[in-house]
C-alpha cells in the first residue's frame, strides 16, 4: 500500500515527537513549566495555598528523577526508614511517630480517633479548617473561639468552652491564616488547666518560618511531658513537598498506636517516602529556605508599608493583608489578572491572605495590584 508524502511526513513528525518525549522523561526536568514557553503567561501566579514557591532541594530532585525506576513498587523499608529519621531528628522513639498523607491525613485520623457523635472539638477562629470539617463529618460538635485582640488563641475563652466535655483541642501555632503566634508559656498553662481526659493536638506546620523570639518554642524542641499532647508537622512547607503528601504526628506510644490503626502505610508512597527522607537529610537547604522566606516576607511587608496598607506580623510563609478595600473585590481583581490569593475569611472580613512567591511572582502580584481601580470605584 503506497503512502503519500504528506502522510510520510506526518508519521515521521509524530515519531520524532515521541522520541523527544521519551528522552525528556528519562532525563526528567522537574523545574520545567508544564505549558510551552510561549504560553507561560497563561500559568497563574499561585499565592493562595501557602506552598514553597521555590520547590524542593536538589537532593530531593535527584530522588524524583529516579522515580520512574521504582514507582512500580509499593513501599518496603522506606516507611520505617523515614519514621526512624524523624524519630532521630526529634529525639523520640520510633513508636511515637506516625506518618500520614500530608498533614490533612493526620487531622483526618485525629477526628476519627478522638471525635464522633456526642464529642466536642474546640479550636480557634479563624484557623486551618480541615480538622473542623473532618470533625463535623464524624458527627462531633465544633466550637469555634474567636482569636483575641493580639490575634492569638483566646485560651481563657477556649478553656471555658472546653469545660469537662471537650474531647480534643486544636492549636495551630503559628496559626493559619493569621500567621501569628500564641506564646508557649500561655499554651502550657492552658494545657495544665484542661481536664485529664482532653487531648490536645498542636499543629506546627509553619514552625520553621518563625522569627526567633522568646515567646515561641516548638513542643518538639522542648517536649511537654504530658501524654495528652500530640504534635503534627508536614513536609509540605519548608521542604517544598506539598505535592508529595507527607505529614506526621508525634505522640505518646499508646496514642500513636491509635493513630497508626487509622493509617495505611501505602498512604505514603515509595516516592514520597524517599523524597521526604532526602529532604530531612538536607539541613543546608532548610537553612536556605528559612532565610529566603524571611527575606521575601520582609520585602513584601516593605512594599505593604510603601502602599500605605496594613498587615499582621507574620511568622509564616504568608501574610494577612488589610487591603483597605473590599477583600472580595481584591481577590476577584487579582484573579482576572491571573494572580490567585487566599479565599475570603469570614472571621476576619477586612483581610486577605497572600502566600509568598518568588520575587518574579511577587512583582506580578504588585503589577496586578497597580491596575486595581481606586478605592471609591471598588466600594460595595
Question: What is the count of structural domains?
Answer: 2
**% residues in beta strands:** 5-15%
Mean pLDDT: 89
CATH superfamily membership of the largest domain? Type I PLP-dependent aspartate aminotransferase-like (Major domain)
**Largest sheet report:** 7 strands, mixed
CATH-defined fold name of the largest domain:
Aspartate Aminotransferase, domain 2
CATH class of the largest domain: Alpha Beta
Number of helices: 13
Specify the helix fraction band.
40-55%
Low-confidence parts, pLDDT < 50 over ≥5 residues?
Answer: 1-35
Explained architecture:
The protein is of the alpha/beta class and 380 residues long. The protein has 2 domains: 39-56 and 284-378, Aspartate Aminotransferase, domain 1, CATH 3.90.1150; 60-281, 3-Layer(aba) Sandwich (Aspartate Aminotransferase, domain 2), CATH 3.40.640.10. 40% of the residues lie in helices and 14% in strands. The chain is built from 13 helices and 12 strands. The protein has helices at 5-26, 58-65, 78-90, 102-114, 130-137, 155-162, 184-193, 253-260, 270-281, 283-306, 327-336, 359-370, 375-378, and strands spanning 45-47, 97-100, 120-125, 141-146, 166-172, 199-203, 229-234, 247-250, 310-311, 318-322, 339-341, 352-355. Strands 2-8-7-6-5-3-4 form a 7-stranded mixed β-sheet, with helices on both faces. α2 (58-65) runs antiparallel to α9, α3 (78-90) packs parallel to α9 and α4 packs parallel to α5 (130-137). It starts with a helix and ends with a helix. Residues 1-35 have low confidence and may be disordered.
Amino acid at each position: 500500500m503506497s503512502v503519500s508524502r504528506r502522510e510520510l511526513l506526518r508519521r515521521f513528525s509524530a515519531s520524532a515527537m515521541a522520541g523527544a518525549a521519551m528522552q525528556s522523561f528519562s532525563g526528567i526536568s522537574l523545574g520545567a513549566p508544564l505549558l510551552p514557553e510561549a504560553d507561560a503567561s497563561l500559568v497563574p501566579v499561585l499565592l493562595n495555598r501557602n506552598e514553597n514557591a521555590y520547590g524542593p532541594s536538589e537532593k530531593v530532585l535527584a530522588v524524583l528523577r529516579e522515580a520512574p525506576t521504582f514507582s512500580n513498587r509499593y513501599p518496603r523499608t522506606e516507611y520505617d526508614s523515614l519514621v526512624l529519621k524523624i524519630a532521630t531528628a526529634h529525639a523520640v522513639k520510633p513508636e511515637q511517630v506516625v506518618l500520614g498523607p500530608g498533614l490533612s491525613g493526620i487531622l483526618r485520623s485525629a477526628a476519627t480517633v478522638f471525635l464522633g457523635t456526642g464529642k466536642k472539638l474546640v479550636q480557634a477562629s479563624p484557623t486551618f479548617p480541615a480538622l473542623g470539617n473532618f470533625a463535623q463529618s464524624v458527627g462531633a460538635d465544633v466550637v469555634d473561639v474567636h482569636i483575641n485582640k493580639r490575634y492569638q488563641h483566646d485560651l481563657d475563652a477556649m478553656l471555658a468552652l472546653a469545660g469537662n466535655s471537650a474531647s480534643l483541642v486544636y492549636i495551630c501555632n503559628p496559626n493559619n491564616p493569621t500567621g501569628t503566634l500564641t506564646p508557649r508559656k500561655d499554651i502550657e498553662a492552658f494545657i495544665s488547666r484542661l481536664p485529664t481526659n482532653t487531648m490536645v493536638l498542636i499543629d506546627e506546620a509553619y514552625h520553621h518560618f518563625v522569627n526567633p523570639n522568646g515567646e515561641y518554642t516548638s513542643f518538639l524542641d522542648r517536649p511537654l511531658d504530658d501524654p495528652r499532647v500530640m504534635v503534627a508537622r508536614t513536609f509540605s512547607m519548608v521542604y517544598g513537598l506539598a505535592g508529595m503528601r507527607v505529614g506526621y504526628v508525634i505522640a505518646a506510644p499508646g496514642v500513636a498506636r491509635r493513630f497508626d490503626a487509622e493509617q495505611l502505610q501505602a498512604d505514603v508512597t515509595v516516592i514520597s517516602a524517599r523524597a521526604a527522607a532526602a529532604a530531612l537529610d538536607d539541613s543546608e537547604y532548610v537553612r536556605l529556605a528559612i532565610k529566603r522566606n524571611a527575606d521575601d516576607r520582609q520585602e513584601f511587608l516593605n512594599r505593604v508599608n510603601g502602599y500605605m496598607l496594613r498587615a499582621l506580623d507574620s511568622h509564616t510563609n504568608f501574610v494577612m493583608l488589610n487591603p483597605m478595600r473590599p477583600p472580595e473585590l481584591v481577590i476577584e481583581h487579582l484573579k482576572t489578572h491571573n494572580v490567585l490569593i487566599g479565599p475570603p475569611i469570614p472571621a476576619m472580613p477586612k483581610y486577605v491572605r497572600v502566600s509568598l512567591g518568588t520575587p518574579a511572582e511577587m512583582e506580578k502580584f504588585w503589577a496586578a495590584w497597580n491596575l486595581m481601580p481606586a478605592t471609591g470605584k471598588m466600594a460595595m
